[in-house]
Amino acid sequence: MWCVVRTVNYTVKGRDYVPLDPHDALRTENYLGRLYSDGKFVGPTLMRDLSAAPRSYADVRLVSIGGILTASASIGGPNNTRRIARLHLDASGNVERADIQPSNQIYEKNWMPLSVNGEFKWIYSIDPTAILPGPLRECPFALDHLRGGAAIAFESGYLCVTHEVTEVEAGLIYLHRFVRLDNRFNVTAVSPTWVFAHHGIEFCAGLALDGSSLVLSYGVEDREAWTTRIDAKELDGIGWILPP
Asked: N or C: which end of the chain has fewer CB within 10 A?
């Protein structure tokens, strides 16, 4: 499997990003390599930005469209704005072009890229269920607080990993949920909340099906990259919440 590992030059304290060098700006580098089934990350190569206006890309999510590797990322802008871009990659994983997605919102970050019948689409939100391009769909649950995440085609529909954020005195706690959609992108079930390993910052941006296993990649406190693997059959006993 292809995998991206992000490196940064800062630490996280509460809600603040603190550069390791107080005179330095916040910076991100992404390394593309192969993730083997035994967990080894092999051949990491810096993803260079070859576009006309080089930028720093965060939260890179990979997706294969017709066998061609592409990606999405979030990009910082002026006045603390943030936008989502689709990244067009060359054979070495460098960014040849970044198509910034239009929005009238100040802050855009957690869109989920998805391959649908060989076409690139976005899951913009779960509630309402917004698939771009496409019409809005009503969600049978109150899930407007959920954010992406990652999504894949799964069984006869689609499977998403989402997160929600709770703020406590010590900082932020990320809770995750699985969300299932049918082949027409109607939400059909949502799981209870869960964490990977601890109550803190855990951000899942990668999901893939490897044989009978689901592989999830996630960051811990913006300083460690992890993967976990579960048998897809375990989802049957997760305690799905169904529409009323």
From this structure: C
Burial class (CB in 10 A: 0-12, 13-18, 19+), 20: exposed
Looking at the structure of the chain, the number of domains it has is 1
CA angle (223 as vertex; 164, 211 as ends), nearest 5: 70
6, part of any domain: yes
Q: Is the backbone of residue 134 left (phi > 0), alpha (psi -120 to 50) or beta?
A: left
**13 pLDDT above the threshold of 80:** no
- pLDDT, one tens digit per residue, over 82-94 is 999 999 999 999 9
The radius of gyration computed from the CA coordinates of the chain, to the nearest angstrom, equals 18
For residue 23, the enclosing domain spans: 2-237
Residue 146 tokens, joined? 């959920």
Residue 96 CA: distances (Å) to CA of 10, 82, 86, 108, 216 = 27, 20, 11, 22, 27
In a domain, 243, yes or no: no
The domain that holds 228 is classified in CATH as 2.115.10.20
> Above pLDDT 90, what percent of the chain?
80
In a domain, 146, yes or no: yes
Answer yes or no: is 242 within a domain. Answer: no
